[in-house]
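Working notes for the structural subgroup meeting. M.R. asked for a predicted model of this chain before we commit to crystallization trials. I am recording the input and output together here so anyone reviewing the notebook later can reproduce the run.

Input as submitted:
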Amino acid sequence: MSYPALAARTAVVTGAASGMGAATARLLAADGARVALFARRTDRLDALAAELTAAGGQVLAVTADVTDQESVDAAAKAVHDAYGRVDLVVNNAGVMLPNPLDEGRLDEWTRMIDTNLTGALRVIRAFTPDLTAAAADGRTADLVNVSSIASHVLFPNYAVYGATKAALTQLSAALRTELGPRDVRVSTIEPGLTDTELGGHIDNTELREQLGGMFTAIPALTAEDIADLIAYTVSRRRHVNLRQSIILPTRQA
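Returned structure, recorded in token form:
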């Protein structure tokens, strides 16, 4: 679908090197938004930026690690220097590392918390002044946090991942009480089974095969399905906030 209302927007998309982030960046750029791409993998960002620029898009590749405050600060400065004020932020960077809790994988827990929750907070901190200023000027301003169905549905061995996503969903709800009265929309997107690189981080053979079995049994969502929902959400009239959207494959309960 096409969303002409996005043509005047300036967006930041985190986790833009692949999957839902890359698909969202493609759709926003195709609809005329200026898009800053945030991710750690410079080569992937540069390739995507070249692709989108060749297609006529306005894009800026910014190497950024959301788990590092200095990196986020430098990335925000690069965006401001190039584009000025941002009015659309898509917090998509995330990692999923399931394992039984009694294995005590503190390194994995820390990585998920730092990326999925604290990383999102760092990005929110960097761009909330932009969003509130844009809204005060009468423009549409959006913060979109990509959470997960795991924030509601319990999966064995995914306890910490689910907890980080539940925290992100709760954070979004609380932020609506602070930013909504200032005309900044806060939306949460909660995908179910989606075909991205996320499962490729799993080092537990049994859990990796279990996830693979789900993909065999259920026709999964694509990254483009999520991007389309995000674009639809942020293209509504500015007084309309699609506050929380759960998107599942039809066969997923």
